[in-house]
């Protein structure tokens, strides 16, 4: 995909505003991967990086991914995420408690929980600045490549 078409591509992803009531949260039933990040971490540069990460694991179509952005301090209950068809969750810069999980999670390590594969990675801003962090995340998710 060309860099010029990036903005249109990224905007086609199914975004969720979790500022709405929990009952209004809709989790995609068709996405292969769900990415959860802080809304504050979404910049034009981080969007491009996220697109590259998704492309590297074989996500080339907006219907294959759902991106959920959380407002500062916002949470999304894991029980809602379990209803998604996606088996892979990339949680960027958020503690497990932000998705209502009381578990210990080491950064960039796959955790299998509730029939889902979760990777808690650093913030997108960190990945933009730190090549080692980017490599560690890739090592954690490269098995997701389809």
Fold blueprint:
Elements: H1 6-11, E1 14-17, E2 33-38, H2 44-56, E3 65-70, H3 78-81, E4 88-92, E5 110-113, E6 116-121, H4 124-129, H5 131-141
Parallel strand pairs: 1-3, 2-3, 2-4, 4-6
Antiparallel strand pairs: 5-6
Characterize the overall form.
Answer: globular
Unreliable stretches: 1-24
Helix-strand string? HEEHEHEEEHH
Q: Oligomerization state of this entry?
A: single chain
Number of strands: 6
Largest sheet: 6 strands, mixed
Commentary on this structure:
It is built from five helices and six strands, in the order H-E-E-H-E-H-E-E-E-H-H. The chain has 146 residues and is an alpha/beta fold. It has a single domain, classed as Uracil-DNA Glycosylase, subunit E (3-Layer(aba) Sandwich), CATH 3.40.470. The protein has a six-stranded mixed sheet with strand order 1-3-2-4-6-5, covered by helices on one side. Strand 2, helix 2 and strand 3 form a beta-alpha-beta unit.
């Amino acid at each position: 995909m060309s860099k010029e078409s990036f903005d249109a591509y990224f905007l086609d992803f199914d975004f969720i505003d979790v500022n709405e009531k929990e009952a209004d949260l809709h989790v995609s039933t068709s996405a292969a991967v769900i990415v959860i990040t802080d809304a504050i971490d979404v910049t034009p540069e981080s969007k491009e990086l996220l697109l590259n990460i998704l492309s590297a694991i074989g996500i080339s179509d907006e219907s294959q991914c759902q991106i959920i952005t959380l407002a500062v301090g916002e949470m999304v209950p894991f029980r809602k995420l379990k209803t998604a068809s996606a088996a892979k969750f990339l949680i960027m810069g958020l503690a497990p408690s932000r998705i209502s999980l009381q578990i210990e999670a080491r950064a960039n390590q796959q955790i299998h929980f509730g029939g889902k594969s979760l990777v808690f990675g650093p913030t997108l801003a960190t990945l933009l600045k730190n090549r080692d962090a980017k490599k560690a995340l890739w090592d954690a998710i490269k098995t997701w490549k389809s």
